[in-house]
Design brief:
globular, four-stranded parallel sheet, single chain, alpha/beta
Amino acid sequence: MTVTKVRFNTPVRTAKRYFLAYGAAHVRNIIVVNEFPKSGGTWISNLISTALELPFYDNLTPPTRPQILKGHFYNPWTMNRGVLVWRDGRDVMVSWYHHCFHKFKDVPINHRTVDHMRAKYNFADYDDIRANLPAFLEREMKTPFYPSFTWPQFVERWHDNRRMVHVRYEDMRSNPNAELAKTIRRLGHDSSESALQAAIDKFDIKKVLVEREKSGDMSRNFVRAGNVGEWRDIYTDEALQIFEHYGGQALKALGYG
């Protein structure tokens, strides 16, 4: 069960989400899915939502009821019921670059971000990610626009938290049946094999991209590629050095090396 309407952030929405994540999750059957942006949290939230038949109010002010609540929460505080989604930070920053500089037809909530970031960077060609990535990494690792913390800081804050269920995006992509079943089981829930398969089939990233290509839809969308290891074809030596300087320890802490 998935809700995909869009609303921009408001103080009320933000306050409600924090209340649910930190104050009500353990008594309201709310499963928090926490990630640094572009780590695969929306996809994994959709999988869990469908398999457990729990609503996922993405980009909406959520009601106080059982649900999947995805967010980018920096502080562990009292959060003790949910999933931490990890992804290779080098791929995260590639995906984040595209999110920052290209407007998505299906998720207009990113349009404000794009307007701000294009004014901030003023690159000659926003499609030339190889040329632009070093400057983008250097600046976003020092003074990030959104969220207010960097990927390495998020990793440092959360990677050894044992109250949450840790899920690697790469593992979920390579073996979704086993990983989704394991995740749901560790959350204390049960789901039938047919329900798991239905969720995986519904949100199969490859199928989504194939159908989009068949339809001739060449516009940019929230689901861009979802590739594992895409960074290898994009990072220059300079970009790798910059990422290693700021995020090398975080990569090692998560076992990416």
